[in-house]
Specification:
With 590 residues, the chain is an alpha/beta fold. It is built from 25 helices and twelve strands. It folds into two domains: 206 residues, Up-down Bundle (ABC transporter transmembrane region fold); 237 residues, Rossmann fold (3-Layer(aba) Sandwich). Helix 2 packs across helix 14, helix 3 runs antiparallel to helix 5 and helix 8 runs antiparallel to helix 11.
C-alpha cells in the first residue's frame, strides 16, 4: 500500500439525527405513496384485532349457555376478518416495499451525484475501499433490509402498536397488566441499543477497511507479484477480515443476550395479564371472555416482537449503512467562485509548490516553481518517487498543494472553479477506463454533442480509425464490461481521441504510453503528439523518447527540479538527464 493510501481520508458518517432527516426528506419526496402504504398497513393490522375480540365474546356466549348460532356467526366473522386482514396486510407490505425501493433509489442517485460531483482534489484523497464499500456494500445492506424485511418490520410494528391499544380497550386494568412487561422491554433495549449501535458502525468501517486492503492488492497486483510481497498483502487482508468477523460475532452474542431478556418480558407480561384477569373475573369486574381476548392479544405480540428482535441486527446494520450513505449525501458541492475569471491564455505557472502525503511523510514536492508558455510541450522525467505525478496532479487540480499555488492563464486554480478548470485542463493517464456502451458513446463522454463525423475525425487524428472500422460494428461496437474487449493500446487511443474531441487548451499526459508494448508505445507517442499539437502540454514521460520530442525537458529528483532545458542541451551538459539518457539508450526498450 502506498503512502497515499495510508493517509487517505475516510468519508464522513452522518449523526443519527441527520440520518433521520435524510430519510424523512426521502419520505416527503415520495408523495402520497408512503402515506397510503402506512394507512393500508394500519387498517390490515386493525382488522387482525377482530379475531381475539370475537373469540372472547364467543367464550362469554358459551358460558352464558347461548346456542350454536352465535358460535357459527363468530366463526364466520373470524374467517372473513382473516381473509380481509391477510389481503390488506399483504397489500400494505407490498406498498411499503415499493415506497421503500423508491426512496432508496432516490438516495442512491443522491449518493452517486455527490460522489461524481465531488471536488477532484477531495476525491483523490478518499480511500478507494471506503468509497467502494459505501456505494457497494452499504447500498446492498440497505437494499436488502428494505427488500427482504422492510415491509415486514413496518407490519410488525403496526401490529404491536394496535394490539396494545386493543388490549387496553378491553379493560384498562388488563392493559396496565400487559404494560408491566414494558419496563423489561425498555431495560433490555436501553442496555442493547447503546452497546450495539457503535458495534454496527465499527462493523461497516471494518468492512470498508477490508475492501480497501483488497482493492490495494488487486490494483497493484503486478507490483505485488514482481516484488513477491503476496504474503504481506494476504496477511493484511486476513487481519482486516478477522477484525470484521470478530465484530460480527460480538454483535451476534449481544443479540442473543438481548433475545433472552425479551423472553423474560413476554413471560412476565402474560403472567400479569392472567393473574390480573383472575382477580377481575373473581370480582365480577370483567368477563372470562375479556380476559381470554386480552391473553390472546398479548400472545399475539410474541410473533411480531420476536420478529423485530431477530431482525434487529439487520435493522441496526441497515441503520449504520444508511448513516454512512447520508454522510456522503451531506458532502458539500464543489465550490464555484462567484466571479470566475477567464484565463488570458494557455500558460501554466507553478509557484513555490510544496506537498506531503500526510504528517511526517517526506516531501513529495519541495518548493517547485515552473512556467510553461502557451503551446509549449514540456516533459517531466525522473526516477520513481521524484514527484512527477504529484506535480501533474496539482496542475490538473486533482490535488491541492500544502504551500504555493498554480496559475492557469494568469488565474489561480482556486479562482477558476471546478467546472471551468475541467474545461481548460484535460488529463490523460495510464489508467484509462472504457465505459460499457458503444464506442461512439464512450467518445462522446468528452463532448456529448459531437457528431459521428467529428468522432471519426478525432480517431483519425490519433491514427485509430483503421482498427475502429475493423471492429464488428465500427463505432457502434459495444465495448467495456460485457462488450468487445479493447487492448491497452486501443484504450489509450480512445483516451487520446477523447482529448481531441474535448479540445482543451492545456493537456497533461501522465505516462499515457506506459501500458503498451514497444511497438504500441511508439504508435501512441505519435498519436499523443498529434492529439496535443497546438496545445500547452505537460508529459510525465515513461519513455525518454517522449522527452526527446518535447520542447523542454524538466528533470525532477526527490521533489525538486534539478535540471531543465532542451533535450540536446541537457545531454551535452552531462548531468542527471544525460545519465538517464545513456541508461535508456543502453538498456533494451521496455
Amino acid at each position: 500500500m502506498s503512502a497515499t493510501d495510508e493517509h487517505a481520508d475516510l468519508l464522513p458518517t452522518a449523526s443519527a439525527r441527520r440520518t433521520w432527516a435524510v430519510l424523512g426528506d426521502g419520505v416527503r419526496r415520495s408523495g402520497w405513496g408512503t402515506l397510503l402504504s402506512l394507512v393500508v398497513v394500519l387498517i390490515g393490522s386493525g382488522v387482525g384485532l377482530i379475531a381475539p375480540w370475537v373469540l372472547g365474546a364467543m367464550v362469554d356466549d358459551i358460558t352464558a349457555g347461548a346456542g350454536l348460532d352465535p358460535v357459527l356467526r363468530a366463526a364466520g366473522i373470524i374467517a372473513a376478518a382473516a381473509v380481509v386482514g391477510g389481503l390488506l396486510t399483504g397489500l400494505g407490505g407490498w406498498l411499503v416495499s415499493r415506497s421503500g425501493e423508491m426512496i432508496l433509489a432516490r438516495l442512491r442517485e443522491r449518493v452517486m451525484d455527490r460522489v461524481l460531483h465531488m471536488p477532484a482534489a477531495r476525491l483523490e484523497r478518499v480511500r478507494v475501499g471506503d468509497l467502494l464499500s459505501r456505494v457497494g456494500d452499504d447500498v446492498a445492506v440497505v437494499t436488502a433490509g428494505i427488500a427482504r424485511n422492510g415491509s415486514d418490520v413496518v407490519v410488525a410494528m403496526a401490529t404491536v402498536l394496535l394490539t396494545a391499544v386493543g388490549m387496553t380497550a378491553l379493560d384498562w386494568r388488563l392493559g396496565l397488566a400487559g404494560l408491566c412487561a414494558l419496563p423489561v422491554y425498555v431495560w433490555a433495549a436501553r442496555w442493547y441499543l447503546p452497546i450495539s449501535g457503535p458495534y454496527y458502525a465499527r462493523e461497516r468501517v471494518a468492512m470498508g477497511e477490508r475492501s480497501h486492503a483488497m482493492m490495494g492488492a488487486l490494483r497493484g497486483r503486478a507490483a505485488v507479484r514482481a516484488y513477491r510481497v503476496e504474503a504481506e498483502h494476504e496477511g493484511r487482508v486476513a487481519e482486516r477480515s478477522r477484525a470484521a468477523m470478530d465484530i460480527t460475532v460480538s454483535v451476534f452474542r449481544l443479540l442473543t443476550r438481548f433475545g433472552s431478556r425479551l423472553n423474560g418480558a413476554e413471560c412476565l407480561g402474560l403472567t400479569m395479564v392472567l393473574v390480573t384477569g383472575f382477580w377481575l373475573v373473581r370480582g365480577d369486574l370483567v368477563t372470562v371472555g375479556a380476559v381470554t381476548a386480552a391473553a390472546l392479544y398479548f400472545h399475539r405480540l410474541f410473533g411480531p416482537m420476536m420478529f423485530l428482535v431477530m431482525n434487529f441486527n439487520e435493522v441496526q446494520s441497515a441503520g449504520a449503512s444508511l448513516a454512512r450513505l447520508a454522510g456522503v449525501v451531506d458532502l458539500p458541492e464543489a465550490p464555484e467562485p462567484r466571479d470566475a475569471r477567464e484565463p488570458q491564455d494557455a500558460s501554466v505557472r507553478v509557484k513555490a509548490v510544496a506537498h506531503r502525503y500526510g504528517p511526517g511523510a517526506p516531501p513529495a514536492l519541495d518548493g517547485v516553481s515552473l512556467e510553461i508558455a502557451p503551446g509549449e510541450r514540456v516533459a517531466l522525467v525522473g526516477a520513481s518517487g521524484a514527484g512527477k505525478t504529484t506535480l501533474a496532479a496539482i496542475i490538473t487540480g486533482l490535488r491541492v498543494p500544502d504551500e504555493g499555488e498554480v496559475h492557469l492563464g494568469g488565474v489561480p486554480l482556486a479562482d477558476l472553479g471546478e467546472s471551468r478548470l475541467r474545461g481548460h485542463v484535460y488529463l490523460v493517464s495510464q489508467e484509462t477506463h472504457v465505459f460499457a456502451g458503444t464506442l461512439l458513446e464512450d467518445l462522446r463522454l468528452a463532448r456529448p454533442e459531437a457528431t459521428e463525423a467529428e468522432a471519426e475525425a478525432a480517431l483519425a487524428r490519433v491514427d485509430a480509425l483503421t482498427w475502429v472500422r475493423a471492429l464488428p460494428e465500427g463505432l457502434r461496437t459495444v465495448v467495456g464490461e460485457g462488450g468487445h474487449a479493447l487492448t491497452a493500446e486501443q484504450s489509450q487511443h480512445l483516451a487520446l481521441a477523447r482529448l481531441v474531441l474535448a479540445d482543451p487548451p492545456v493537456a497533461v499526459l501522465d505516462e499515457a504510453t506506459a501500458e503498451a508494448g514497444s511497438a504500441g508505445a511508439r504508435r501512441l507517442e505519435r498519436a499523443s503528439l498529434a492529439a496535443t499539437e497546438g496545445r500547452t502540454t505537460l508529459v510525465v514521460a515513461h519513455r525518454l523518447t517522449q522527452a526527446r520530442a518535447a520542447d523542454r525537458v524538466v528533470v525532477m529528483d526527490h521533489g525538486r527540479i534539478v535540471e531543465q532545458g532542451p533535450h540536446e542541451a541537457l545531454v551535452a551538459a552531462g548531468g542527471r538527464y544525460a545519465d538517464l539518457w545513456r541508461g535508456w539508450r543502453g538498456a533494451p526498450n521496455p
